[in-house]
Amino acid sequence: SSSGTNAFTSQPSLVRKQQRMNGRTNMVAPMPELMEPLNNGAIDISSLLLSDESMVPSYSKASYYTTLGVYLMSFPGLYSQIKRSTVAKTKRKTYVTPGEAASGGQDLRQTAGEIMAYMKANNYEVAEAGEVITFRGLVQKSVSQAFFLTFCTALGMASLALVLQIQFIDFKLPLGLNWFYLVLLSPYAGLYYWRSGDRVDDIKVKLASNEGDTENEITIEGNDDELDRMWRALNWSEKGMVRIAGALE
Question: Quick one: which of 23, 36, 59, 176 has the most CB atoms within 10 Å?
Answer without folding.
Answer: 36
